[in-house]
Fold this sequence. Notes:
The structure is a homodimer. Chain A is 18% helix and 34% strand. The longest helix of chain A is centred in the middle third of the chain and has 10 residues, at 43-52. By secondary structure, chain A is of the alpha+beta class. Chain A has a 4-stranded mixed sheet, with helices on one face. A two-stranded antiparallel ribbon of chain A has the order 4-5. Chain A has 3 helices and 8 strands, in the order βββαβββββαα. Chains A and B meet through β1, β2, β3, α1 and β6 of A and β1, β2, β3, α1 and β6 of B. β6 (76-83) of chain A pairs antiparallel with β8 of chain B, so a sheet runs across the interface.
Amino acid sequence: MDLPVTTTVDLSAVRYDSATGLVPVVVQDVDTGHVLTLAYANREALKRTLATGESWFFSRSRQEYWHKGATSGHTQAVVDVRVDCDGDAVLYLVRPNGPACHTGENTCFFRTVTHVETSIVRDATAAAPASDALVSS
Amino acid sequence: MDLPVTTTVDLSAVRYDSATGLVPVVVQDVDTGHVLTLAYANREALKRTLATGESWFFSRSRQEYWHKGATSGHTQAVVDVRVDCDGDAVLYLVRPNGPACHTGENTCFFRTVTHVETSIVRDATAAAPASDALVSS
């Protein structure tokens, strides 16, 4: 997969959320094109990614730096780091060394949403006989 | 591009940010594999996307619903809506009817980040003669 690039910038192009200091990072497999994960990084995590060529994030739940694969071995070699037009989203193009998801799936996006919630409206059910009567009359 | 899917869920699988009521949405071109945009949606925007088969978001800056392409004509036909393993990120797989980015680029991620900021440290420059003297002594 070949994503067009027109401009080269440095890390000052990235805008972090004013409350959290974080920016969302889309992680994509550069070979298959699969979107693997959405995670978050702060400036230091992005610096470590650029310096090491492997995916670094900042874990919102654990409030600590997260070197992807440090425990599992499923590191991600970062081929390219992109920033979007207004600077508030980042994209890592990676070659993963194993599944991206903690469930063991290759991608975290393995669930498809097919419809809005199935709601059981009890009042409507209770009124059904009267409606049926109207329809059949 | 073919993203594996293993589970079918309904919209109740999506978890919204407790402060904003929003969830980040990665938008990807299902044919080229290009990641186009990162935007945000609330529950109503996701419902409209599922109901109409076109990309709907909620604009954080304008604080209003955003039907992609309503003004520009660059709508996005949504082929699939995915939710990630822990429910706090969504992926739209789309067929775009024109460029995704307001700049006219096909993707918002047209800028590559090659290095950390180039910093000019004026204090260090000012101290240079003394340092030079030390080094050369």
